[in-house]
Amino acid sequence: AQKVTQAQTEISVVEKEDVTLDCVYETRDTTYYLFWYKQPPSGELVFLIRRNSFDEQNEISGRYSWNFQKSTSSFNFTITASQVVDSAVYFCALSDEYSGGGADGLTFGKGTHLIIQP
Amino acid sequence: DGGITQSPKYLFRKEGQNVTLSCEQNLNHDAMYWYRQDPGQGLRLIYYSQIVNDFQKGDIAEGYSVSREKKESFPLTVTSAQKNPTAFYLCASSTSRSYEQYFGPGTRLTVT
Hints:
The structure holds two protein chains of two kinds. Chain A is 0% helix and 52% strand. By secondary structure, chain A is mainly beta. Chain A starts with a strand and ends with a strand. By secondary structure, chain B is mainly β. Chain B has no helices and eleven strands. In chain B, the strands form two sheets. In chain B, strands 2, 4, 5, 6, 9, 10 and 11 form a seven-stranded mixed sheet that branches. Chain B has a four-stranded antiparallel sheet with strand order 1-3-8-7, with no helix packed on it. In chain B, strand 4 and strand 5 form a beta hairpin. Chain B is globular, with a radius of gyration of 13 Å. In chain B, 36% of the residues are buried. Chain A binds chain B through residues 4, 9, 33, 35, 37, 42-47, 50, 91, 95, 101-106, 108-111, and chain B through 31, 33, 35, 40-45, 48, 50, 56, 58-59, 88, 90, 92, 94, 96, 98-106, 108.
C-alpha cells in the first residue's frame, strides 16, 4: 500500500533562514503523482504543486523549490529566505494507480508544522 | 468566485444525533471527496464520488454516509454509529483528469 512519511513534526526557524521539509513516499506503482499542500491556521488546504513520476526535474516558484528524487523516493520542499507568512502546516501527498489514480483520493503524510519566528 | 463552500464552519452536536455537513462547489468538477483530520494527523479519506449518483468508500467510511444527487453537491452525514466524530472535516473536488484537489474551508465538528 502507498505511504507518505514526513518525519519532521515541527520545525522552527528565524525569518530569512532557508528551510527544507522532507517527504518520503512508498508506492508499488511506476505511475504516480506527488503533491504539496499548505494549511494555514484558517484550516483550508492550499495546493502548491503536483509532480508526476516521470518528471524528475526540480521546480522553482519564487522562494519555493521542490527536489524530486526517485532513487530515494523523496520529494522535498525548500523555502528560501523564509517569511513569517510561511508559518503553516505543510502536507505532502501521494496519488498512484494502485489507489485508482487521483479520483480515489490522496494519501497524506502527517504534516510538518513550520514556525517562522520574526 | 469559483470555489468550494462548506457550512457551517463550526458545528456542535450531542452524542447520539446524526449531523449533516454541507459541501458545494461551482468549479464544474466531476470528482468530490470528504476527508477527516484529527489533531497532529494528516487527512484520511472518508468517501469519494467520481460522478453523480455514484460514490465509493474511502479508508474510514464506517459511521458515515454520503449522497451525490447533483454534480455540485456532496453532503456528508455523520451518524451516531461513528464512535469518535469530533474532528475537522474537509471537502475537496477535482476534475476527472486532473489530479489536483481543491479544498473547502472545512467544518469543525464537536460532539459531546
